[in-house]
Amino acid sequence: CEVRPGPEFLTRSYTFHPNRLFHAYQFYYEDPSCQKPAHSVLMKGKVRLRRASWVTRGATEADYHLHKVGIVFHSRGALLAVAERLGLSQASQDCARRLPPAGAWLPGAVYELLGAQAEQDCAAALGFTMHELSLVRVQRHLQPQPRAPSRLVEELYLGDIHTDSGGETALPTHGYSATAERLQHHSHPCLVCGLVSHADEHHPPVLPPPVALALRLQGRWVSSGCEARPAVLFLTRLFTFHGHNRSWEGHYHHFSDPACQQPTFTVYATGRYTNGTPSAKVRGGTELVFEVTRAHVTPMDQVITAMLNFSKPGSCGGPGAWSMGTERDVTATNGCMPLGIRLPHVEYELFKMEQDPRGQSLLFIGQRPTDGSSPDTPEKRPTSFQAPLVLCEKRAPRALGLMPTLSAHVQGLAAGASLWRKAVLPAFGKFLVLGGWGTLQ
Ligand SMILES: *[C@@H]1O[C@H](CO)[C@@H](O)[C@H](O)[C@H]1NC(C)=O
Ligand SMILES: *[C@@H]1O[C@H](CO)[C@@H](O)[C@H](O)[C@H]1NC(C)=O
């Protein structure tokens, strides 16, 4: 069950055909567990891969065109909620006439928002677009399995969904938002994948109740893969929370490539956090306040080392030269301006914990604002989540690192547009979008 800014709750299933046509379902829900379907949107269109992105390495820019968008309401209440959203502007008032009056609503009827008979694009007026298809990437990796051989997982990453909600208008997108696993490659049965994949606009998937866990941060949490952020950053994260004195430590390992193999710099930050209070806006979420009071920086490549060496004196650490691979404390200079680290710093956070079907504890941390800023006021507190971190086992904390990737393949994808396209096109098939992908930090 994905949570988008707003918050909106949805599941998605996209099918790509070899002739570039695609059809997509977006199932919307009233609740954060995706158990009460509100309305379903079906879209048909065409997508064309254009060229390797200059901004986000490893990604391909794409054009898409929607031929048809329809909406089905699963309750009268859902119709009223959508109609209310339309009552706001003149253009959308015209669109409101496409929807039936609440009294005339027919369960199962498909109302066309865009298509042969619709002279106006009412899908966009309602915020149903496919801007996420402007940026695509497919990646394969081996996922370790408890007590079984690793399995090959293929994931689809799509463009970022902007956190300022109200319409996904800003283009082009520079980050990835979503991770989808290709159903065909699930040797291991995935209950939710099956439900979403077999659903249609008349039979929206109803997900099983999540195994919600009370927020217990104690322990070490790591990224389960290479994460992407909008400002063209790739990183892995490792957090340690000390419950008894309410302090935390974070290691942010930054990389220049989407496989997280070429390190650029590492930030180690520590501070304190408050007691959590249940979120009124996002059910199941907990609001906390984090304080960052100390930070250390380690440059990991020549470019960053030189940049720090030549930065304004006093802007990042005390006097003295930087050298590659050597950590320095930047607390006394209130952070490190060249890297955008300011101290002391406060963040208004949203967390939640869940357990995945394999019994692994997952920690969801709030999505970062798309403009690259941080949630430093209560108003900017996130309403959606990044890709979850996983809890390290108590006895054998694994070193922070990625799951083994098929490096040759992944590097091939990142290496050039032609190779990348060859890799992507035959890979088209049916994708299920399983979770959010962070725009992090
Ligand atoms: C909190 O406890 C941990 C582990 O016991 C320790 O490493 C850390 O320095 C403590 N932090 C503060 C702020 O006291
Ligand atoms: C950083 O400065 C030191 C001292 O001036 C110098 O020896 C070193 O080569 C510089 N490193 C880089 C990467 O510029």
TrEMBL record:
Which GO terms fall under molecular function for this chain's record?
Wnt-protein binding
Asked if the Swiss-Prot or TrEMBL record annotates the protein with the keyword Disulfide bond, the reply is no
The lineage's top-level taxon is Eukaryota
- Record's keyword terms, sorted: Glycoprotein, Membrane, Signal, Transmembrane
Q: Which Pfam families has this protein been placed in?
A: APCDDC
* Annotated membrane topology: Single-pass membrane protein
The residue ranges of the APCDD1 domain are 1-209, 210-405
Please provide, in alphabetical order, the Gene Ontology terms of the cellular component aspect for this entry.
plasma membrane
Q: Where in the cell is it found?
A: Membrane
Q: What is this protein called?
A: APC down-regulated 1 like
Species assigned in the record:
Loxodonta africana
